[in-house]
Design goal:
CATH architecture of the largest domain in chain A: 3-Layer(aba) Sandwich
Radius of gyration of chain B: 23 Å
Strand order of the largest sheet of chain B: 3-4-2-5-6-7
Pfam families (chain A): Septin
Distance between the termini of chain A: 178 Å
Structural class of chain B: alpha/beta
Shape of chain A: elongated
Order of helices and strands of chain A: HEHEHEEHEHEHHEEEEHHH
Mean pLDDT of chain A: 84
Protein name (chain A): Septin
Shape of chain B: globular
CATH topology of chain B: Rossmann fold
Strand order of the largest sheet of chain A: 3-4-2-5-6-7
Strand content of chain A: 5-15%
Number of helices of chain A: 10
CATH topology of the largest domain in chain A: Rossmann fold
CATH class of chain B: Alpha Beta
Helix content of chain A: 40-55%
Structural class of chain A: alpha/beta
Strand content of chain B: 15-25%
Organism (chain A): Carassius auratus (Goldfish)
CATH architecture of chain B: 3-Layer(aba) Sandwich
Keywords (chain A): Coiled coil, GTP-binding, Nucleotide-binding
Helix content of chain B: 25-40%
Oligomer: heterodimer
Distance between the termini of chain B: 50 Å
Number of strands of chain B: 10
CATH superfamily of chain B: P-loop containing nucleotide triphosphate hydrolases
Radius of gyration of chain A: 47 Å
Largest sheet of chain B: 6 strands, mixed
Number of strands of chain A: 10
Low-confidence stretches of chain A: 1-17, 317-322
CATH class of the largest domain in chain A: Alpha Beta
Number of helices of chain B: 9
Family (chain A): Belongs to the TRAFAC class TrmE-Era-EngA-EngB-Septin-like GTPase superfamily. Septin GTPase family.
Chain lengths: ~425, ~325
């Protein structure tokens, strides 16, 4: 039996731990690694999930259509929803060789209720549900993480109504609840309703309100030199004032997406008119990957940590962590299954009980019906008997009547004979 | 969820203001940027008897002194009495791409008189790396990037006997191919003529098939038809007959890596002479990411499933507990 000399391994490892930089004397070829990685991702496809939060009628669906240059399905929602619901739709988009599975989640009925205290709850629940699904997959014993369809929300576009004054309290409350769970990108919707000067003031007011209320919105990352500059400039333009439109208008000799008014045309892709181009640039062309990474490494990790601590695990001292997590998890699951079974039993008992009761009821009813039937039968028989008796007596009467009739007829006949003979006698006597 | 396939107008020119261009494919560039910033890790293990040119091959592959031998200049060359496992890390960079390369050497393998179970310490080491990664992964407070010390690829050196695989080769590869990607190579192939080489390769492939040893690239992990075609070509060449050298010689006016003998110079990177170039291309230029993926999504996951299941089948009381409270990792049946 050969033994591993752990000491030697440790020493050798430590020597390399502060890994030495080694110069290469020729072309090795691992500079193709980024390409290999990108190729693998292209084969796999990407997924991106956007959540649109905002009152009904702020142009959420139109903006999505404009951003992704596609007509996504959907009818404009009515304003009479009883609560806030989240509707999500998944689309497969492709551009050159990149396949994107885009999921757009809309908040239906947000801001329409009279009492909006609980509006944010269904949104938070939805976001948590996606984290939970991922966590469950990650904790499974046999798992398929690499082919798992990630439904966690990568970006939350918060639509602010273009009042021009300040944020509504509903907005503040909702954003505060969401800022630790998702990357929030606030945007001013339908910004063609505000003039340029009002817009500048509005943006400043919004930013200061967010800061004073401690709302953490998503900051475009400035640690990579290639994009640091553009990102930091864009951070200063938040919130983006956007206009969405899927209608095309001819300007000059080109067809552009715009909204036509009697007093002029708002061009969606004109940077002087609105910040749509900036939004598209930041959201899709520059920071999509960062949004996904932040969701995974920050928001999801936070959720996971809280959830696991809630379930009763902790990293104790470094020596005794390991499987207590899995064990306790299994134990809890068994406990839960046990409870489930108990409930199932209870429900079954109740069901059996109910069935018995119903059976008894039905039996009663049956009995009653039988009795009724018997009574009716008896009644019928009595009636029948009466009728028969009556018939009999009628028959008797008829018979006696007949007898009397024949007797009477006989008598009459006799009387006639006697009469005729007496008339004959009388005639004879007259003749004489 | 409504799945609707819609295709926006795809344009060839990627001008930013092009009507209809959304910019989804910019994510490739974003990914590339992120990868360059983070750098890559690669852990490669070399296994074989001493004297087969393992260290030289590593140096040749990575064009620098990465092997253990190069580090210890004053230590005498000795064959260790037991198998040691020595791992050394290097930071290398090429065209802006940074890589942390770890070379794991196994001096003493196959050098004893009695080599029974020589594969066990190596198997233990590989499983220990999986274990370490698993521990990190199930922490509540996890690191942003879990340091990956899992062995991605194990190069097994077959001595150029020219006949067939020896029992120790078969034993080793049979056990280890279940937990790590194995790439067998014929070492010091300049001692075989081309015909001997082909015959040897054929025999080796037969032996591998007969013992159901699945070497990299494994047939069952081919993803699609394209993959299969590429990988079939590779499988037809395995094991690669390699020659290593870190010395340059003048050949036809060029300075090339090679081995100079009285009857000629063996050019390492000449595919007519040996298959080093194919090995390098496979390991580094084309399949490195794939090797890492198979390690993480298949070998590691298998280890994880085994480990998590074994924890559930033993009632707690019966498990031996180490001093630090960790349930003793029972030697699994296949490790025997």
């Amino acid at each position: 039996m050969q033994e591993i000399t752990m000491a030697a391994t440790e020493i050798a490892r430590q020597a390399g731990e502060g890994a030495r930089a080694v110069p290469l004397s020729g072309h090795v070829g691992f500079d193709s690694m980024p390409d290999q990685l990108v190729n693998k991702s292209v084969n796999h496809g990407f997924c991106f999930n956007i959540l649109c939060v905002g009152e009904t009628g702020l142009g959420k669906s139109t903006l999505m259509d404009t951003l992704f240059n596609t007509k996504f399905e959907g009818e404009p929602t009515q304003h009479n929803q009883p609560g806030v619901q989240l509707k999500s739709n998944t689309y497969e988009l492709q551009e050159s060789n990149v396949r994107l599975k885009l999921t757009v989640v809309n908040t239906v009925g947000f801001g329409d209720q009279i009492n909006k205290e609980d509006s944010y709850k269904s949104i938070v629940e939805f976001i948590d549900a996606q984290f939970e699904a991922y966590l469950q997959e990650e904790l499974k014993i046999k798992r398929t993480l690499h082919s798992y369809h990630d439904t966690r929300i990568h970006a939350c576009l918060y639509f602010i109504a273009p009042t021009g004054h300040s944020l509504k309290s509903l907005d503040l409350v909702t954003m505060k609840k969401l800022d630790s769970k998702v990357n929030i990108v606030p945007i001013v919707a339908k910004s063609d309703a505000i003039s340029k000067s009002e817009l500048a003031k509005f943006k400043i007011k919004i930013t200061s309100e967010l800061v004073s209320n401690g709302v953490q919105i998503y900051q475009f990352p400035t640690d990579d030199e290639t994009v640091a500059e553009i990102n930091s400039t864009m951070n200063g333009h938040l919130p983006f004032a956007v206009v969405g439109s899927t209608e095309e208008v001819k300007i000059g000799n080109k067809m552009v997406r715009a909204r036509q008014y009697p007093w002029g045309t708002v061009q969606v892709e004109n940077e002087n008119h609105c910040d749509f181009v900036k939004l598209r640039e930041m959201l899709i062309r520059v920071n999509m990957e960062d949004l996904r990474e932040q969701t995974h490494t920050r928001h999801y990790e936070l959720y996971r940590r809280c959830k696991l601590e809630e379930m009763g695990f902790k990293d104790t001292d470094p020596d005794s962590k390991p499987f207590s997590l899995q064990e306790t998890y299994e134990a809890k699951r068994n406990e839960f299954m046990g409870e489930l079974q108990k409930k199932e039993e209870e429900m079954r008992q109740m069901f059996v009980q109910r069935v018995k009761e119903k059976e008894a009821e039905l039996k009663e009813a049956e009995k009653e019906l039988h009795e009724k039937f018997d009574r009716l039968k008896k009644l019928h028989q009595d009636e029948k008997k009466k009728l028969e008796d009556k018939k009999k007596s009628l028959d008797d009467e008829l018979n006696s009547f007949k007898q009397k009739k024949t007797a009477a007829e006989l008598l009459q006949a006799q009387t006639q004979q006697a009469g005729s003979s007496s008339t004959l006698k009388k005639d004879k006597e007259r003749k004489n | 969820m409504a799945d609707v396939g819609k295709t926006p107008v795809a344009r060839n020119e990627k001008t930013n203001n092009d009507f209809g261009y959304v910019g989804i494919d910019a994510i490739l560039e974003q990914m590339r940027r992120k990868a360059m910033k983070q750098g890559f890790e690669f852990n490669i293990m070399v296994v074989g008897q001493s004297g087969l040119g393992k260290s030289t091959l590593m140096n040749t592959l990575f064009k620098s002194k990465v092997s253990r031998r190069s580090l210890m200049k004053t230590e005498e060359e000795r064959i260790p009495k037991t198998i040691e496992i020595k791992s050394i890390s290097h930071d290398i960079e090429e065209k802006g791409v940074r890589m942390k390369l770890t070379v794991i050497d196994t001096p003493g393998f196959g050098d004893q008189i009695n080599n029974e179970n020589c594969w066990q310490p190596i198997m233990k080491f590989i499983n220990a790396q999986y274990e370490q990664y698993l521990q990190e992964e199930i922490n509540i407070e996890r690191k942003k990037r879990i340091p990956d010390s899992r062995v991605h690829c194990c190069i097994y050196f077959i001595p150029p006997t020219g006949h067939c695989l020896r029992p120790i080769d078969i034993e080793f590869m049979r056990h280890l191919s279940k937990v790590v990607n194995i790439v067998p190579v014929i070492a010091k192939a300049d001692t075989l003529t081309l015909e001997e080489r082909d015959f040897f390769k054929q025999k080796i492939r037969e032996d591998l098939r007969a013992n159901e040893i699945d070497i990299y690239p494994q047939k069952e992990f081919d993803e699609d038809a394209e993959d299969r075609i590429i990988n079939e070509k590779i499988r037809e060449m395995i094991p690669f007959a390699v020659v290593g050298s870190d010395q340059e010689y003048q050949v036809n006016g060029k300075r090339l890596l090679g081995r100079k003998t009285r009857w000629g110079t063996v050019e390492v990177e000449n595919t007519a002479h040996c298959e080093f170039a194919y090995l390098r291309d496979l390991l580094i230029r084309t399949h490195m990411q794939n090797i890492k993926d198979i390690t993480s999504s298949i070998h590691y996951e298998m280890y994880r499933v085994r480990r998590l299941n074994e924890n559930n089948t033993h009632p707690n009381g019966q498990q031996a507990i180490n001093a630090n409270g960790v349930p003793e990792h029972e030697v699994l049946s296949h490790e025997m």
